[in-house]
Amino acid sequence: MGRLRENLLTFATLVGVLAGLGLGLGLKSYSTEKWTPREAHYVGYPGKLFLNMLKCMIIPLIVPSLIAAIGQLDLRTSGKVGSRAVIYYMSTTLLAVTLGVVLTVTIRPGIGGPEEENSINSDGRNSTSVDTLLDLLTNCFPPNLVQATLQQYKTELVYPGNQQGQLSRSGAVLDPTDKLTWEMSSSWTSSTNILGLVVFSIITGIAISLSGEEGKPLLSFFKSVSHVMMMVTSWIVFLAPIGVCFLIAGEILHMESVLDELIKLGWYLLVVCLGITIQGAVFLPLMYSIITRSLPFTFIGKMGPALATAFGTASSSATLPVTINNLENGNRVNPKIARFVLPIGATINMDGTALYEAVAAIFIAQLTGMNPSLGQIIIISITATAASIGAAGIPHAGLVTLVMVLETVNLPSESVSIIMSVDWLVDRFRTAVNVLGDSFGAAIVAHLCKDDISEEENSPLKKYDLLDKEDDITELSQLHSKGEELKELVGEAQKPQTPPSLGAFSAHTARDRSKCVDM
Protein backbone atom coordinates (compact mmCIF):
# COMPACT_ATOMS: atom_id res chain seq x y z
CA MET A 1 0.00 0.00 0.00
CA GLY A 2 2.86 2.35 0.83
CA ARG A 3 4.51 1.65 -2.52
CA LEU A 4 1.25 2.40 -4.33
CA ARG A 5 0.91 5.70 -2.50
CA GLU A 6 4.52 6.57 -3.35
CA ASN A 7 3.98 5.97 -7.09
CA LEU A 8 0.41 7.27 -7.22
CA LEU A 9 1.37 10.44 -9.12
CA THR A 10 3.30 8.39 -11.69
CA PHE A 11 0.34 6.11 -12.36
CA ALA A 12 -2.08 9.04 -12.44
CA THR A 13 0.05 10.92 -14.98
CA LEU A 14 0.33 7.87 -17.25
CA VAL A 15 -3.43 7.41 -16.98
CA GLY A 16 -3.76 11.08 -17.97
CA VAL A 17 -1.72 10.44 -21.15
CA LEU A 18 -3.89 7.47 -22.12
CA ALA A 19 -7.06 9.38 -21.23
CA GLY A 20 -5.94 12.27 -23.44
CA LEU A 21 -5.40 9.94 -26.38
CA GLY A 22 -8.79 8.32 -25.79
CA LEU A 23 -10.57 11.64 -25.34
CA GLY A 24 -9.06 13.16 -28.48
CA LEU A 25 -9.78 10.15 -30.69
CA GLY A 26 -13.25 9.71 -29.17
CA LEU A 27 -14.30 13.30 -29.73
CA LYS A 28 -12.88 13.23 -33.24
CA SER A 29 -14.82 10.08 -34.20
CA TYR A 30 -18.02 11.17 -32.42
CA SER A 31 -18.63 14.18 -34.65
CA THR A 32 -19.05 13.79 -38.41
CA GLU A 33 -18.06 17.43 -38.94
CA LYS A 34 -14.54 18.78 -38.72
CA TRP A 35 -13.53 20.38 -35.46
CA THR A 36 -12.89 24.11 -35.81
CA PRO A 37 -9.68 25.58 -34.35
CA ARG A 38 -11.77 27.38 -31.72
CA GLU A 39 -13.46 24.17 -30.58
CA ALA A 40 -10.13 22.36 -30.41
CA HIS A 41 -8.74 25.29 -28.43
CA TYR A 42 -11.55 25.00 -25.88
CA VAL A 43 -10.82 21.29 -25.35
CA GLY A 44 -7.11 21.94 -24.83
CA TYR A 45 -7.65 25.04 -22.67
CA PRO A 46 -7.16 23.32 -19.25
CA GLY A 47 -3.89 21.88 -20.56
CA LYS A 48 -2.80 25.34 -21.70
CA LEU A 49 -3.37 26.67 -18.17
CA PHE A 50 -1.24 23.84 -16.75
CA LEU A 51 1.51 24.57 -19.29
CA ASN A 52 1.46 28.26 -18.39
CA MET A 53 1.81 27.42 -14.69
CA LEU A 54 4.87 25.30 -15.42
CA LYS A 55 6.43 27.99 -17.62
CA CYS A 56 5.77 30.56 -14.91
CA MET A 57 7.96 28.57 -12.52
CA ILE A 58 10.99 28.27 -14.83
CA ILE A 59 12.78 31.53 -13.96
CA PRO A 60 11.89 31.85 -10.22
CA LEU A 61 12.92 28.22 -9.70
CA ILE A 62 15.97 27.84 -11.94
CA VAL A 63 17.82 31.10 -11.19
CA PRO A 64 17.79 30.97 -7.35
CA SER A 65 18.26 27.19 -7.29
CA LEU A 66 21.32 27.37 -9.54
CA ILE A 67 22.82 30.30 -7.62
CA ALA A 68 22.23 28.60 -4.27
CA ALA A 69 23.61 25.27 -5.48
CA ILE A 70 26.86 26.78 -6.75
CA GLY A 71 27.15 29.25 -3.87
CA GLN A 72 27.19 26.40 -1.34
CA LEU A 73 29.95 24.51 -3.16
CA ASP A 74 33.60 25.41 -3.08
CA LEU A 75 35.17 26.15 -6.45
CA ARG A 76 37.02 22.84 -6.57
CA THR A 77 33.80 20.85 -6.16
CA SER A 78 31.72 22.97 -8.52
CA GLY A 79 34.45 22.72 -11.16
CA LYS A 80 34.38 18.92 -10.94
CA VAL A 81 30.58 18.82 -11.09
CA GLY A 82 30.38 21.16 -14.08
CA SER A 83 33.13 19.48 -16.09
CA ARG A 84 31.72 15.98 -15.54
CA ALA A 85 28.22 17.16 -16.50
CA VAL A 86 29.43 18.75 -19.74
CA ILE A 87 31.47 15.66 -20.67
CA TYR A 88 28.44 13.43 -20.08
CA TYR A 89 26.09 15.66 -22.08
CA MET A 90 28.42 15.99 -25.06
CA SER A 91 29.09 12.24 -25.09
CA THR A 92 25.40 11.29 -25.11
CA THR A 93 24.59 13.89 -27.77
CA LEU A 94 27.31 12.60 -30.10
CA LEU A 95 26.12 9.06 -29.43
CA ALA A 96 22.55 10.02 -30.36
CA VAL A 97 23.65 11.70 -33.61
CA THR A 98 25.77 8.68 -34.58
CA LEU A 99 22.86 6.33 -33.86
CA GLY A 100 20.51 8.44 -36.00
CA VAL A 101 22.93 8.53 -38.91
CA VAL A 102 23.54 4.76 -38.81
CA LEU A 103 19.82 3.94 -38.70
CA THR A 104 18.91 6.34 -41.53
CA VAL A 105 21.72 5.22 -43.82
CA THR A 106 20.90 1.56 -43.13
CA ILE A 107 17.10 1.60 -43.34
CA ARG A 108 16.93 4.43 -45.94
CA PRO A 109 13.40 5.67 -45.11
CA GLY A 110 13.47 8.36 -47.80
CA ILE A 111 13.88 5.95 -50.71
CA GLY A 112 10.46 5.59 -52.31
CA GLY A 113 8.84 7.80 -49.69
CA PRO A 114 6.29 10.55 -50.27
CA GLU A 115 7.31 13.31 -52.63
CA GLU A 116 6.99 16.88 -51.54
CA GLU A 117 3.52 17.88 -52.65
CA ASN A 118 3.15 21.30 -51.17
CA SER A 119 5.56 24.05 -51.94
CA ILE A 120 5.61 26.51 -49.10
CA ASN A 121 6.63 30.00 -50.03
CA SER A 122 9.25 30.35 -47.40
CA ASP A 123 12.92 31.09 -47.35
CA GLY A 124 13.27 29.58 -43.91
CA ARG A 125 15.37 31.55 -41.50
CA ASN A 126 17.53 34.12 -43.28
CA SER A 127 20.81 33.32 -41.57
CA THR A 128 23.85 31.13 -41.99
CA SER A 129 25.24 28.38 -39.78
CA VAL A 130 27.96 30.74 -38.52
CA ASP A 131 25.33 33.32 -37.58
CA THR A 132 23.39 30.72 -35.63
CA LEU A 133 26.45 29.62 -33.64
CA LEU A 134 27.43 33.25 -32.94
CA ASP A 135 23.86 33.95 -31.79
CA LEU A 136 24.27 31.09 -29.32
CA LEU A 137 27.37 32.78 -27.88
CA THR A 138 25.71 36.21 -27.90
CA ASN A 139 22.76 34.91 -25.90
CA CYS A 140 25.17 33.65 -23.22
CA PHE A 141 25.83 37.31 -22.29
CA PRO A 142 22.53 39.23 -22.50
CA PRO A 143 22.80 43.04 -22.33
CA ASN A 144 19.77 43.24 -20.03
CA LEU A 145 18.67 40.59 -17.53
CA VAL A 146 15.05 41.71 -17.59
CA GLN A 147 15.05 41.46 -21.38
CA ALA A 148 16.63 38.00 -21.11
CA THR A 149 13.52 36.78 -19.30
CA LEU A 150 11.42 37.70 -22.33
CA GLN A 151 13.53 37.74 -25.50
CA GLN A 152 16.41 36.07 -27.35
CA TYR A 153 18.81 37.71 -29.77
CA LYS A 154 18.79 36.60 -33.40
CA THR A 155 20.82 37.68 -36.44
CA GLU A 156 18.93 38.06 -39.72
CA LEU A 157 20.07 38.75 -43.25
CA VAL A 158 18.36 41.37 -45.41
CA TYR A 159 17.47 40.02 -48.86
CA PRO A 160 18.85 42.48 -51.43
CA GLY A 161 16.24 41.69 -54.09
CA ASN A 162 16.67 40.16 -57.52
CA GLN A 163 18.52 43.11 -59.01
CA GLN A 164 22.21 42.40 -59.61
CA GLY A 165 25.01 44.82 -58.85
CA GLN A 166 23.58 46.55 -55.79
CA LEU A 167 26.12 47.89 -53.31
CA SER A 168 26.12 47.59 -49.55
CA ARG A 169 26.83 50.48 -47.20
CA SER A 170 30.50 49.49 -47.27
CA GLY A 171 30.55 49.52 -51.06
CA ALA A 172 30.68 45.73 -51.51
CA VAL A 173 28.51 44.10 -54.17
CA LEU A 174 25.37 42.34 -52.93
CA ASP A 175 24.83 38.97 -54.59
CA PRO A 176 21.22 37.69 -54.21
CA THR A 177 22.45 34.09 -54.58
CA ASP A 178 25.15 34.37 -51.88
CA LYS A 179 23.91 35.01 -48.35
CA LEU A 180 27.41 35.80 -47.14
CA THR A 181 27.27 39.10 -49.08
CA TRP A 182 23.90 40.27 -47.73
CA GLU A 183 23.45 43.05 -45.19
CA MET A 184 23.05 41.89 -41.58
CA SER A 185 20.45 43.02 -39.08
CA SER A 186 19.53 42.01 -35.56
CA SER A 187 16.18 41.24 -34.00
CA TRP A 188 14.73 39.99 -30.73
CA THR A 189 12.35 37.05 -30.64
CA SER A 190 9.76 36.45 -27.92
CA SER A 191 11.38 33.55 -26.09
CA THR A 192 13.08 33.31 -22.69
CA ASN A 193 16.86 33.38 -22.96
CA ILE A 194 17.45 30.42 -20.64
CA LEU A 195 21.11 30.13 -21.67
CA GLY A 196 21.87 33.72 -20.68
CA LEU A 197 20.12 33.33 -17.33
CA VAL A 198 22.02 30.10 -16.65
CA VAL A 199 25.39 31.76 -17.38
CA PHE A 200 24.50 34.73 -15.15
CA SER A 201 23.39 32.39 -12.34
CA ILE A 202 26.61 30.35 -12.55
CA ILE A 203 28.78 33.48 -12.37
CA THR A 204 26.73 34.89 -9.47
CA GLY A 205 27.00 31.59 -7.58
CA ILE A 206 30.78 31.56 -8.04
CA ALA A 207 30.98 35.16 -6.79
CA ILE A 208 28.95 34.27 -3.67
CA SER A 209 31.21 31.29 -3.01
CA LEU A 210 34.28 33.55 -3.19
CA SER A 211 32.74 36.29 -1.03
CA GLY A 212 32.85 34.29 2.20
CA GLU A 213 30.97 35.82 5.12
CA GLU A 214 29.81 38.86 3.15
CA GLY A 215 28.06 36.65 0.60
CA LYS A 216 26.13 34.53 3.12
CA PRO A 217 23.11 36.86 3.48
CA LEU A 218 22.57 36.78 -0.29
CA LEU A 219 23.08 33.00 -0.32
CA SER A 220 20.47 32.60 2.42
CA PHE A 221 18.02 34.70 0.40
CA PHE A 222 18.39 32.57 -2.73
CA LYS A 223 18.14 29.36 -0.67
CA SER A 224 14.90 30.61 0.86
CA VAL A 225 13.44 31.58 -2.52
CA SER A 226 14.45 28.21 -3.94
CA HIS A 227 12.75 26.36 -1.07
CA VAL A 228 9.49 28.32 -1.47
CA MET A 229 9.45 27.87 -5.25
CA MET A 230 9.96 24.11 -4.88
CA MET A 231 6.93 23.99 -2.61
CA VAL A 232 4.83 25.85 -5.20
CA THR A 233 6.17 23.52 -7.89
CA SER A 234 5.11 20.46 -5.91
CA TRP A 235 1.56 21.82 -5.87
CA ILE A 236 1.56 22.32 -9.65
CA VAL A 237 2.98 18.82 -10.23
CA PHE A 238 -0.17 17.28 -8.77
CA LEU A 239 -2.16 18.86 -11.62
CA ALA A 240 -0.06 17.02 -14.24
CA PRO A 241 -2.56 14.19 -14.97
CA ILE A 242 -5.34 16.66 -15.81
CA GLY A 243 -3.13 19.08 -17.73
CA VAL A 244 -1.44 16.40 -19.85
CA CYS A 245 -4.79 14.79 -20.67
CA PHE A 246 -6.29 17.95 -22.17
CA LEU A 247 -3.05 19.00 -23.90
CA ILE A 248 -2.92 15.74 -25.88
CA ALA A 249 -6.67 15.75 -26.61
CA GLY A 250 -6.52 19.30 -27.96
CA GLU A 251 -3.52 18.49 -30.16
CA ILE A 252 -5.33 15.52 -31.72
CA LEU A 253 -8.40 17.62 -32.49
CA HIS A 254 -6.24 20.15 -34.34
CA MET A 255 -5.23 17.44 -36.84
CA GLU A 256 -7.27 16.66 -39.94
CA SER A 257 -6.65 12.89 -39.87
CA VAL A 258 -4.38 11.17 -37.37
CA LEU A 259 -4.17 7.90 -39.32
CA ASP A 260 -3.41 9.54 -42.68
CA GLU A 261 -0.57 11.59 -41.18
CA LEU A 262 0.99 8.50 -39.58
CA ILE A 263 0.76 6.41 -42.77
CA LYS A 264 2.14 9.14 -45.03
CA LEU A 265 5.48 9.29 -43.23
CA GLY A 266 5.47 5.83 -41.68
CA TRP A 267 9.08 4.86 -42.43
CA TYR A 268 10.46 8.20 -41.27
CA LEU A 269 8.41 7.98 -38.08
CA LEU A 270 9.58 4.39 -37.54
CA VAL A 271 13.27 5.29 -37.83
CA VAL A 272 13.01 8.32 -35.53
CA CYS A 273 11.03 6.44 -32.87
CA LEU A 274 13.35 3.42 -33.14
CA GLY A 275 16.42 5.61 -32.64
CA ILE A 276 14.86 7.49 -29.73
CA THR A 277 13.80 4.20 -28.12
CA ILE A 278 17.29 2.69 -28.44
CA GLN A 279 18.85 5.86 -27.02
CA GLY A 280 16.42 6.13 -24.10
CA ALA A 281 15.82 2.46 -23.31
CA VAL A 282 19.24 0.95 -24.03
CA PHE A 283 22.18 3.36 -24.24
CA LEU A 284 21.30 5.80 -21.44
CA PRO A 285 20.24 3.12 -18.89
CA LEU A 286 23.30 1.03 -19.80
CA MET A 287 25.60 3.99 -19.20
CA TYR A 288 23.86 4.67 -15.87
CA SER A 289 24.22 1.03 -14.78
CA ILE A 290 27.89 0.79 -15.73
CA ILE A 291 28.88 3.98 -13.91
CA THR A 292 26.68 3.72 -10.80
CA ARG A 293 26.63 -0.13 -10.65
CA SER A 294 22.88 -0.15 -10.01
CA LEU A 295 19.82 -1.13 -12.05
CA PRO A 296 18.00 1.75 -13.76
CA PHE A 297 14.42 0.44 -13.56
CA THR A 298 13.53 1.95 -10.19
CA PHE A 299 15.16 5.22 -11.20
CA ILE A 300 13.15 5.42 -14.45
CA GLY A 301 9.94 4.48 -12.63
CA LYS A 302 10.31 7.34 -10.18
CA MET A 303 10.88 9.74 -13.08
CA GLY A 304 7.47 8.77 -14.50
CA PRO A 305 5.68 12.09 -13.78
CA ALA A 306 8.50 14.08 -15.42
CA LEU A 307 8.55 11.83 -18.52
CA ALA A 308 4.76 11.96 -18.86
CA THR A 309 4.78 15.73 -18.44
CA ALA A 310 7.51 16.00 -21.09
CA PHE A 311 5.42 13.89 -23.46
CA GLY A 312 2.34 16.03 -22.82
CA THR A 313 3.95 19.47 -22.97
CA ALA A 314 6.70 18.75 -25.55
CA SER A 315 8.87 21.22 -23.62
CA SER A 316 11.93 20.25 -21.58
CA SER A 317 12.09 23.75 -20.06
CA ALA A 318 8.46 23.59 -18.89
CA THR A 319 9.11 20.09 -17.49
CA LEU A 320 12.19 21.23 -15.54
CA PRO A 321 10.36 21.96 -12.25
CA VAL A 322 8.80 18.48 -12.33
CA THR A 323 12.17 16.89 -13.16
CA ILE A 324 13.87 18.57 -10.20
CA ASN A 325 11.03 17.49 -7.91
CA ASN A 326 11.21 13.84 -9.03
CA LEU A 327 15.00 13.69 -8.77
CA GLU A 328 15.20 15.15 -5.27
CA ASN A 329 12.11 13.58 -3.68
CA GLY A 330 11.84 10.35 -5.67
CA ASN A 331 15.42 9.32 -6.47
CA ARG A 332 17.07 11.17 -3.58
CA VAL A 333 19.66 12.93 -5.71
CA ASN A 334 21.58 15.58 -3.78
CA PRO A 335 19.75 18.92 -4.32
CA LYS A 336 23.06 20.72 -4.79
CA ILE A 337 23.86 18.50 -7.76
CA ALA A 338 20.33 18.37 -9.19
CA ARG A 339 19.81 22.12 -9.16
CA PHE A 340 23.24 22.74 -10.64
CA VAL A 341 23.26 20.09 -13.37
CA LEU A 342 19.62 20.04 -14.57
CA PRO A 343 19.37 23.68 -15.76
CA ILE A 344 22.58 23.18 -17.74
CA GLY A 345 21.24 19.92 -19.17
CA ALA A 346 17.93 21.51 -20.16
CA THR A 347 19.93 24.04 -22.17
CA ILE A 348 22.70 22.03 -23.84
CA ASN A 349 21.66 18.36 -23.58
CA MET A 350 19.20 17.48 -26.36
CA ASP A 351 19.80 13.81 -27.22
CA GLY A 352 16.40 13.33 -28.85
CA THR A 353 16.62 16.59 -30.79
CA ALA A 354 20.12 15.82 -32.10
CA LEU A 355 19.04 12.35 -33.25
CA TYR A 356 15.88 13.74 -34.86
CA GLU A 357 17.75 16.43 -36.81
CA ALA A 358 20.32 13.97 -38.15
CA VAL A 359 17.58 11.56 -39.24
CA ALA A 360 15.41 14.33 -40.74
CA ALA A 361 18.27 15.88 -42.73
CA ILE A 362 19.37 12.59 -44.30
CA PHE A 363 15.73 11.57 -44.86
CA ILE A 364 15.05 14.80 -46.78
CA ALA A 365 18.27 14.31 -48.76
CA GLN A 366 17.10 10.83 -49.77
CA LEU A 367 13.68 12.20 -50.77
CA THR A 368 15.19 14.83 -53.04
CA GLY A 369 17.38 12.25 -54.77
CA MET A 370 20.62 13.37 -53.15
CA ASN A 371 22.84 10.60 -51.86
CA PRO A 372 24.90 12.23 -49.07
CA SER A 373 28.62 11.53 -49.18
CA LEU A 374 30.65 10.61 -46.12
CA GLY A 375 31.85 14.20 -45.82
CA GLN A 376 28.30 15.55 -45.99
CA ILE A 377 27.16 13.04 -43.35
CA ILE A 378 29.98 14.21 -41.06
CA ILE A 379 28.95 17.84 -41.64
CA ILE A 380 25.32 16.94 -40.86
CA SER A 381 26.41 15.20 -37.67
CA ILE A 382 28.50 18.14 -36.43
CA THR A 383 25.84 20.69 -37.36
CA ALA A 384 23.06 18.62 -35.77
CA THR A 385 25.07 18.45 -32.53
CA ALA A 386 25.65 22.21 -32.51
CA ALA A 387 22.04 22.94 -33.48
CA SER A 388 20.66 20.73 -30.71
CA ILE A 389 22.73 22.64 -28.15
CA GLY A 390 21.26 25.91 -29.39
CA ALA A 391 17.67 24.62 -29.60
CA ALA A 392 15.25 26.23 -27.17
CA GLY A 393 13.47 23.91 -24.76
CA ILE A 394 10.03 24.73 -26.20
CA PRO A 395 7.65 22.84 -28.53
CA HIS A 396 8.75 22.57 -32.19
CA ALA A 397 12.04 24.40 -31.52
CA GLY A 398 13.84 21.61 -33.42
CA LEU A 399 12.18 22.67 -36.67
CA VAL A 400 13.91 26.05 -36.49
CA THR A 401 17.38 24.57 -35.98
CA LEU A 402 16.67 21.89 -38.61
CA VAL A 403 16.63 24.65 -41.23
CA MET A 404 20.23 25.44 -40.31
CA VAL A 405 21.23 21.78 -40.73
CA LEU A 406 19.59 21.59 -44.17
CA GLU A 407 21.24 24.77 -45.41
CA THR A 408 24.65 23.48 -44.30
CA VAL A 409 24.52 20.75 -46.96
CA ASN A 410 22.61 22.88 -49.52
CA LEU A 411 19.26 21.15 -49.05
CA PRO A 412 16.07 23.23 -49.58
CA SER A 413 14.80 24.62 -46.30
CA GLU A 414 11.23 24.41 -47.65
CA SER A 415 11.51 20.62 -47.31
CA VAL A 416 10.86 21.02 -43.59
CA SER A 417 7.17 21.12 -44.54
CA ILE A 418 7.34 17.42 -45.45
CA ILE A 419 7.79 16.29 -41.85
CA MET A 420 5.78 19.02 -40.12
CA SER A 421 2.59 16.94 -40.18
CA VAL A 422 4.03 14.36 -37.74
CA ASP A 423 6.35 16.68 -35.82
CA TRP A 424 3.76 17.02 -33.04
CA LEU A 425 4.25 13.33 -32.20
CA VAL A 426 8.02 13.14 -32.77
CA ASP A 427 8.48 16.26 -30.68
CA ARG A 428 6.92 14.56 -27.67
CA PHE A 429 9.08 11.44 -27.91
CA ARG A 430 12.32 13.36 -28.31
CA THR A 431 11.44 15.70 -25.41
CA ALA A 432 10.88 12.70 -23.13
CA VAL A 433 14.32 11.34 -24.06
CA ASN A 434 15.87 14.78 -23.49
CA VAL A 435 14.43 14.87 -19.97
CA LEU A 436 15.48 11.28 -19.27
CA GLY A 437 19.02 12.06 -20.43
CA ASP A 438 19.16 15.12 -18.17
CA SER A 439 17.97 13.03 -15.22
CA PHE A 440 20.46 10.23 -15.79
CA GLY A 441 23.18 12.86 -16.13
CA ALA A 442 22.37 14.43 -12.77
CA ALA A 443 22.31 11.00 -11.08
CA ILE A 444 25.63 9.98 -12.67
CA VAL A 445 27.34 13.25 -11.71
CA ALA A 446 25.96 12.94 -8.16
CA HIS A 447 27.40 9.42 -7.95
CA LEU A 448 30.82 10.51 -9.23
CA CYS A 449 30.96 13.55 -6.95
CA LYS A 450 29.44 12.06 -3.79
CA ASP A 451 32.82 11.84 -2.02
CA ASP A 452 33.59 15.49 -2.78
CA ILE A 453 30.16 16.61 -1.59
CA SER A 454 30.26 14.52 1.61
CA GLU A 455 33.80 15.70 2.37
CA GLU A 456 32.71 19.30 1.99
CA GLU A 457 29.54 18.86 4.06
CA ASN A 458 31.43 17.08 6.88
CA SER A 459 34.24 19.59 7.15
CA PRO A 460 34.21 21.48 10.51
CA LEU A 461 34.20 24.92 8.92
CA LYS A 462 31.34 24.04 6.61
CA LYS A 463 29.37 22.51 9.46
CA TYR A 464 29.33 25.69 11.51
CA ASP A 465 28.91 27.93 8.45
CA LEU A 466 25.46 26.44 7.73
CA LEU A 467 23.79 27.53 10.98
CA ASP A 468 20.60 28.48 9.14
CA LYS A 469 19.65 24.81 8.76
CA GLU A 470 17.01 23.54 11.16
CA ASP A 471 18.96 20.51 12.33
CA ASP A 472 22.00 22.65 13.17
CA ILE A 473 19.85 25.00 15.22
CA THR A 474 18.26 22.06 17.08
CA GLU A 475 21.68 20.60 17.84
CA LEU A 476 22.97 23.92 19.17
CA SER A 477 19.83 24.33 21.33
CA GLN A 478 20.37 20.89 22.86
CA LEU A 479 24.02 21.70 23.58
CA HIS A 480 22.99 24.99 25.17
CA SER A 481 20.44 23.23 27.41
CA LYS A 482 23.01 20.66 28.53
CA GLY A 483 25.45 23.47 29.25
CA GLU A 484 22.92 25.23 31.48
CA GLU A 485 22.26 22.00 33.40
CA LEU A 486 25.99 21.47 33.86
CA LYS A 487 26.40 25.01 35.20
CA GLU A 488 23.65 24.40 37.79
CA LEU A 489 25.31 21.16 38.97
CA VAL A 490 28.69 22.84 39.26
CA GLY A 491 27.12 25.70 41.21
CA GLU A 492 25.49 23.32 43.68
CA ALA A 493 28.76 21.47 44.18
CA GLN A 494 30.64 24.71 44.88
CA LYS A 495 28.23 25.93 47.64
CA PRO A 496 29.75 25.81 51.21
CA GLN A 497 28.30 23.02 53.37
CA THR A 498 26.61 24.30 56.61
CA PRO A 499 27.68 22.28 59.74
CA PRO A 500 24.89 20.92 61.95
CA SER A 501 23.97 22.99 65.03
CA LEU A 502 24.88 21.89 68.64
CA GLY A 503 21.21 21.43 69.60
CA ALA A 504 20.57 19.12 66.73
CA PHE A 505 23.69 17.14 67.67
CA SER A 506 22.47 16.75 71.32
CA ALA A 507 19.00 15.65 70.24
CA HIS A 508 20.52 13.07 67.90
CA THR A 509 22.66 11.71 70.81
CA ALA A 510 19.65 11.49 73.16
CA ARG A 511 17.70 9.42 70.58
CA ASP A 512 20.61 7.01 70.28
CA ARG A 513 20.74 6.53 74.10
CA SER A 514 16.98 5.87 74.31
CA LYS A 515 17.31 3.18 71.66
CA CYS A 516 19.99 1.50 73.74
CA VAL A 517 17.79 1.58 76.89
CA ASP A 518 14.88 -0.03 75.06
CA MET A 519 17.15 -2.80 73.97
How would you summarize the topology of this molecule?
Blueprint: H1 2-6, H2 8-30, H3 37-56, H4 58-72, H5 75-107, H6 129-139, H7 145-148, E1 151-158, E2 166-167, E3 173-174, E4 183-190, H8 194-211, H9 216-237, H10 240-253, H11 258-264, H12 266-292, H13 297-302, H14 304-313, H15 316-330, H16 335-348, H17 351-367, H18 374-390, H19 397-408, H20 416-419, H21 423-448, H22 450-458, H23 460-465, H24 470-494, H25 502-518
Helix pairs in contact: 2-10, 2-14, 3-10, 3-15, 4-8, 4-9, 4-16, 5-12, 5-16, 5-17, 5-18, 5-21, 6-18, 10-14, 12-17, 12-21, 14-15, 14-21, 15-16, 15-21, 16-21, 17-18, 17-19, 17-21, 18-19
Would you kindly provide a written description of the structure presented here, covering whatever features stand out?
With 519 residues, the chain is mainly alpha-helical. The chain is 73% helix and 4% strand. It has 25 helices and four strands. The strands form two sheets. It has a two-stranded antiparallel sheet with strand order 1-4. Strands 2-3 form a two-stranded antiparallel sheet. Strand 2 and strand 3 form a beta hairpin. Helix 17 crosses helix 18. The chain is globular. The protein starts with a helix and ends with a helix. The C terminus is likely disordered.
Brief account:
By secondary structure, this protein is mainly α. The chain contains 25 helices and 4 strands. Strand 2 and strand 3 form a beta hairpin.
